[in-house]
Specification:
462 residues, mainly alpha, two-stranded antiparallel sheet, 19 helices, 2 strands, 2% strand
């Protein structure tokens, strides 16, 4: 999305969920117990799957014919029996023989593509192995068969977060929570993902929810304390600047940017108001640098108002931004289009979003937003055209991103030196938050709120 992104800094304390051997062992035990009990669920019925965190009970998933609790003895093992292979996959996962376990799961699925259980195991194993691309593929196969499977959504979110695709991870975790709101580890994962994106406002609020669900959860407590500490640490230099020079509109603007970046919209608005009150006027007659800063403030005010559910207040601020700095027009029209969509004025939303597309034709987000408005207006064919173009743009951008990652990884191999941390970079770099478009590059897409954060923690293997 063309909006302010919450930048990036990893959490000092990160979540952990039961995976690998423990999950496989519990699966075998639960299955054996179910089969041993009178009135056990028949094959093909709903069967319990162990929780992703110790002590959390069970999640009900549709189960296919149950494989043996453990693989048959070698002399009775059939390499062409998918149930045998799946059972051995679980046994091998319990022994931390991850790659062999993956091989068994893949072979089981090849032999019986109608069974989704191998993909259920694969998505867990592949996240453990940090093979996030294949984990996404497996999770999506599970979701194709079980569209409302909250556990598959949870692992899909892991696959996104492992590749720093935080907007997708956040949206996917929100879907999982909507389907299973009592799973505290889902809420915990969402809170930590927000915090890794430096959206500490939402992160702390979400972690507080998770803690209310499980007051004794030390992991959530640690994550919450870490988030509060990191927020305080990140705000400190900007608060100091304002304290030392309270009459500086530059310092007030910088404080507003950092409040907005870290998910504190009300405080951001207050700082922006102070900054604008201290700027010389009339603004249109000021020098270019002053006008650009004022435009940036108005632009961010517009984003904050929409975030707070006040689209009617957002549009005037966005309009003022592009009057002061025309290079922001593509972004301003995009947000104006979203605000009008929120207000239900679909035709005027389409007009604004078309202007954004005309000014920035190589950005996927404005085309996707335009497609939504066109579809809402009943113009399905036009909406499809915009979505198809957006998908091509996104595929190109993803390929370029992967190429840059590979180039960076190759460049880093010969040296032992470490790059500065994301948090340090944020403090040493520009005062504007990540995702606020630079006036020098108005056609570049700005990432969504919660994007560009370092890879998240991986599920615990024991």
């Amino acid at each position: 999305m063309l909006c302010v992104a919450a930048g990036c800094a990893s959490m000092h304390k990160v979540e952990s969920v039961e995976e690998g051997p423990a999950a496989a062992r519990h699966a075998a035990e639960a299955q054996a117990q179910a089969q041993a009990k009178p009135g056990a669920a028949p094959q093909g019925s709903v069967a319990p799957v162990p929780s992703l965190a110790p002590g959390e009970g069970h999640v009900q998933l549709q189960a296919g014919p149950a494989p043996p609790a453990t693989a048959p003895a070698p002399d009775k093992f059939d390499n062409n029996n998918p149930a045998h292979l799946l059972a051995r996959c679980r046994d091998r996962a319990a022994r931390k023989e991850w790659f062999d376990a993956v091989g068994d799961c893949r072979r089981s699925y090849e032999l019986d593509p109608s069974s989704i259980e191998p993909q259920v195991e694969l998505m867990r194993l592949l996240v453990t192995l940090r093979d996030f691309g294949d984990a996404e593929e497996s999770a999506n196969k599970v979701l194709a068969a079980r569209p409302n499977d909250p556990v598959a959504l949870y692992y899909l979110a892991w696959s996104y977060r492992g590749r720093q695709e935080y907007p997708r991870a956040i949206a996917t975790l929100q879907r999982a929570i909507a389907l299973d709101p009592k799973r505290a580890e889902f809420v915990q994962a969402l809170g930590i993902t927000y915090c890794q994106a430096e959206n500490y406002g939402k992160g702390i609020e979400t972690l507080e929810r998770a803690l209310a669900m499980e007051p004794a959860n030390a992991m959530t407590t640690d994550a919450l304390n870490s988030a509060r500490g990191l927020l305080k640490e990140n705000l400190a230099p900007y608060l100091k600047l304002v304290q030392e020079r309270p009459d500086s509109y530059d310092n007030q603007a910088a404080l507003g940017f950092i409040f907005q970046r870290h998910g504190l919209p009300q405080k951001a608005l207050a700082a922006y108001d102070i900054a604008l009150s201290k700027m010389p006027g009339p603004l249109p007659k000021q020098d270019a640098e002053t006008k650009k800063l004022a435009a940036q403030i108005y632009y961010n005010r517009g984003i904050v108002y929409r975030e707070l559910g006040k689209p009617a207040d957002a549009e005037p601020a966005l309009w003022q931004a592009m009057q002061l700095d025309p290079s922001l027009a593509a972004f301003a029209w995009y947000y104006i289009g979203l605000c009008r969509y929120d207000l239900g004025t679909i035709d005027s939303s389409i007009d604004a979003l078309r202007k954004s597309v005309d000014l920035a034709p190589d950005v996927a987000d404005n085309r996707l937003a335009l497609a939504d408005s066109l579809e809402k207006a009943g113009k399905t064919a036009d909406a499809t055209t915009q979505r198809t173009t957006a998908q091509a743009i996104q595929a190109r951008d993803d390929a370029q991103k992967e190429a840059r990652k590979k180039a960076d990884a190759d460049a880093a191999k010969p040296t032992e030196s470490k790059a500065p941390s994301a948090g340090a970079a944020a403090q040493q770099g520009t005062l504007t938050p990540a995702g606020v478009p630079s006036a020098a590059s108005p056609s570049q897409p700005a990432p969504s709120a919660g994007s560009e954060v370092p890879a998240g923690d991986v599920p615990a293997q024991n």
